[in-house]
Amino acid sequence: MQKENLHVNVGDLHLRNPTLLAAGLMGLTGASLKRVWNSGAGGVITKSMSKEAREGYLGPRVVETPCGLINSMGLPNPGIESMLEEIKIAKDSGALVVGSIFGNEVKEFAELTEKIDKVGAAAIELNLSCPHAEDLSTIGQNPKLTKKVIEACSGSEIPIWVKLPGNTHISNLVGVTKSAEKAGADAIVLTNTLPAMSIDVTSERPILGHGVGGLSGPAIKPIGLRLVYEVYEKIDIPIVGAGGIESGKDMIEYILAGASAVEIGTGMMERNLDIFKKVCEEASTFLDGREVDDLVGSAHKN
Ligand SMILES: Cc1cc2nc3c(=O)[nH]c(=O)nc-3n(C[C@H](O)[C@H](O)[C@H](O)COP(=O)(O)O)c2cc1C
């Protein structure tokens, strides 16, 4: 049962509640996307997809830290054609699906956007921010490149969300978000994982196969919050927050900072798939009858 006071809009896109499955976790098959949708998420985002299949990096690909995870997956995925079939399966179950994509060049983003648009996804998330895929994080740190990618995708009938890296100087981040807005982006997503690593003292070597990776989970929540807070006053398009959300209170903090909706990834390790329902129930109790929409950006009020 979806609570009325949790309905939100990200621009023109209506969500039954503000929680979305974050890209990269449970998002590779139609069956898993459907499971997350049925567990109560307001929308589900696919694993980031590329034109051709990618194997990703050698393992270990994930290591636990006291307050989160460090991953270095290397964006493994079976390629767009096979993912389109998975999106159809998820959509047939009634799920609101957002397709996450990344390309090696500007024109690839445009090609992928066209395919996701045609399959009937609700929105497209451009991943310009994977911290261990060196070329990608550079796009999202560069206002001109970001603009170029978005303009190339502007033929899309569905909203374009732009997921940016959090490991950049705030003034640069604001510059990139303004540039994204000008180029026609419908929403900004902040943040992806942040650059991190873990070293094994016995072997005296990095633990992850790729050496370095990206940190997610509660450890990055204060950083994600700050990024959303800083950007909120500078742009007029909505923000989708991500980073360390595990409870209704965490989600409300992001909403107060300026997020219209949130993505949840690592939190599923702690609270299983029930997390979407639990976060919504906890937020609803906190709201005590108020509309969640009315709280967006409230932390900025004097
Ligand atoms: C194992 C793993 C894989 C991820 N893969 C992707 C991905 O394919 N594309 C993407 O945009 N973000 C990816 N992310 C980042 C998440 O979508 C999210 O932005 C980040 O983990 C912060 O949210 P969280 O703390 O709730 O996990 C991945 C994160 C993890 C932990």
From TrEMBL:
GO terms for molecular function: dihydroorotate dehydrogenase activity. Pathway: Pyrimidine metabolism; UMP biosynthesis via de novo pathway. The active site is at C130. Its main location: cytoplasm. Catalyzes the conversion of dihydroorotate to orotate. Belongs to the dihydroorotate dehydrogenase family. Type 1 subfamily. PANTHER family: DIHYDROOROTATE DEHYDROGENASE (FUMARATE) (PTHR48109:SF1), DIHYDROOROTATE DEHYDROGENASE (QUINONE), MITOCHONDRIAL-RELATED (PTHR48109). This is Dihydroorotate dehydrogenase. It comes from candidate division MSBL1 archaeon SCGC-AAA259A05.
